[in-house]
Amino acid sequence: MTTRDALQSRLEQGIAALGLQLPADAVPRLLDYQALLERWNAAYNLTAVRDPAQMVTRHMLDSLAILPYVQGQTLADLGTGPGLPGIVLAIAAPGREILLVDSNGKKVRFLREAIRTLKLDGVRAVQSRAEDVQGQFDCITARAFASLADMLGWGGHLLAPDGVWLAMKGKSVEEELPGVPPGFELRERHVLHVPGLDAERQLLVLRRT
User: What does the domain layout of the chain look like in residue ranges?
Assistant: First the structure.
């Protein structure tokens, strides 16, 4: 059994290793979110990650690794699943309007419960496919839920003219790059070093041309 103190230590060490300064209440709120996810996961199978310590590494710290690249006042998290990275970013950097988008009803029910329980101001969850969502957002996050071609094909209309699209990917993405649709271009690539995670992570930063 991993205690909350042990999880807190792991989370705090990871945040320090990432070089992040978070609000004073962020760590306890992130742990509240992890506990809620763990509880719901037992019944609803929201994530394949079951171990609480692995949740901290593979979900919390993985999501926090992109925080320095998040910008603007509005953010849409497409294919958010149980709120990754959207809920983590909402806790770590409050003050944005955030829309969490997922087509899975169970996951959206969990998201709404998390928003309510954690009192996440300015955060909404919608059960929808990306292509059916309306509006434009300064920042769009997508955590490995589809190829670049599909992501931008389904959700590209949501990116504001000077907005930034943050695509979180695993290892090689070379074969996906030719699929970036016209009107978008890859501006930056960052290798993310997630504390405690051996697997390679990349962040692709795309913008409108």
Answer: 4-208
pLDDT in tens, 94-110: 999 999 999 999 999 99
DSSP 116: H
Measured CA distances, 185 to 76, 77, 196 (Å) = 19, 19, 31
What's the fold here for domain 4-208? Rossmann fold (3.40.50)
Query: Using CA atoms, how far apart are residues 209 and 206, in angstroms rounded to an integer?
Result: 9
Condensed to tens digits (0 to 9), the pLDDT of residues 159-187 reads: 999 999 999 998 778 999 999 999 999 99
Taking the C-alpha atoms of residue 102 and residue 38, their distance in angstroms, rounded to an integer, is 19
- pTM, to two decimals: 0.97
